[in-house]
Amino acid sequence: MIDQNKLPHSFEITACGTAAQTAKAIKDMTVRGAPAIGAAAGFAMAQAISENPKTSAAARATIESTRPTAVDLFYSTKRVFDAAAQATDGAKTAWSEANAIAGESVAACKAIGETGLDEVFGKRKKMRIMTHCNAGWLACVDWGTALAPIYAAKASGLEPFVYCTETRPRGQGARLTAFELSNEGVDHAIIADGAAAWLMKKGEIDAVIVGADRIAANGDTANKIGTFGHAIAAKEHGLPFFVAAPTSTIDPGLENGESIPIEERDENEVHLVRGVDEAGVVRTVRWTNPASHARNPAFDVTPARLITQIITEKGISTPSRIKELVE
Ligand code: MRU
């Protein structure tokens, strides 16, 4: 997998040879983004079944304890575990199921791009779109979710301009979305998270599109911390607020967003920043007041009423009808 903790300062591929290593890579965010976490969890489950089928239930619990919010993780471990349990050749079946999940993710993201292109851009050649966190190909197996329509627009000759919010504390927008957009030749600017509402007010943003980590049956959507505030700001300014996600991110068993588990991560992610110094050396430094503690909720839940449309590989839905896509 691409080591996302090292980006954008270096591009490194890291190999995870055991289920424990893959689980650790999910937990420490070497791999992150709901569909990429889902794909990695499927392979971790296949590794665990190959290593020892008798301990695979315990291994599943370990994999599922890495990150609580993105439902794709649980979708994948269940699919691989159940497929292997019903097969005579468990390990072989587990690997083919994990591969199938990864392949389906690529196809879903491509379809999200094609559908989202029409819905978000319509016939407009130039659009200024804001996105939060990173929901591009780094966060998926390929294409992305929120960024897929933007890549489709660019490929079809349109001229998207993307505002990427920094996404404190881990900087997925400043580090990862900006890295992707540079590589794809898409015009963009990084903005501080707090600048979003002001740019909307000034009429400099036409639409917002974000990914999702878990969508409840009523359309309430968990995504990276800060998404909720951007949705409120978009509503205030009459801007469309799109969520793009594969149907594997829908959790029809949860009636609403109240019961989506929200991960709280280590406070050091708020205190420490990693970057390149003037001599070109990558360093991690503490930039917050040494005597202060920090809180670090990693996700929030945007109520369905603030979401204009949800774009999936099976088509577009209003939040209130999202459950129908998985029935
Ligand atoms: O903590 P992260 O970086 O895994 O959070 C990622 C997000 O919140 C993304 O927006 C979401 O997973 C969708 S990725 C296509």
Could you give the topology of this structure?
Layout: H1 19-27, H2 34-51, H3 56-64, H4 71-85, H5 90-121, E1 126-131, H6 148-155, E2 159-165, H7 172-184, E3 187-191, H8 196-201, E4 207-210, E5 214-216, E6 221-224, H9 227-236, E7 241-244, E8 250-251, H10 268-271, E9 272-276, E10 282-286, E11 299-302, E12 309-312, E13 315-317
Parallel strand pairs: 1-2, 1-4, 2-3, 4-7, 5-8, 7-12
Antiparallel strand pairs: 5-6, 6-11, 9-10, 12-13
Helix pairs in contact: 1-2, 1-3, 2-3, 2-4, 2-5, 3-4, 4-5, 5-6
Bound molecules: 5-S-methyl-1-O-phosphono-5-thio-D-ribulose.
Residues 32-35, 70, 133, 135, 139-140, 145, 172, 210-213, 223-224, 298 line the site of 5-S-methyl-1-O-phosphono-5-thio-D-ribulose.
What do these coordinates show?
Helix content is 38%, strand content 17%. Helix 2 packs antiparallel against helix 5 and helix 4 (71-85) packs antiparallel against helix 5 (90-121). The chain contains 10 helices and 13 strands. The longest helix has 32 residues, at 90-121. The model has no long low-confidence stretch (mean pLDDT 97). A hairpin with a 5-residue loop joins strand 9 and strand 10. It has 2 domains: 19-106, Four Helix Bundle (Hemerythrin (Met), subunit A) (Up-down Bundle); 114-326, 3-Layer(aba) Sandwich (Rossmann fold), CATH 3.40.50.10470. The protein binds 5-S-methyl-1-O-phosphono-5-thio-D-ribulose. 5-S-methyl-1-O-phosphono-5-thio-D-ribulose (MRU) is lined by residues 32-35, 70, 133, 135, 139-140, 145, 172, 210-213, 223-224, 298.
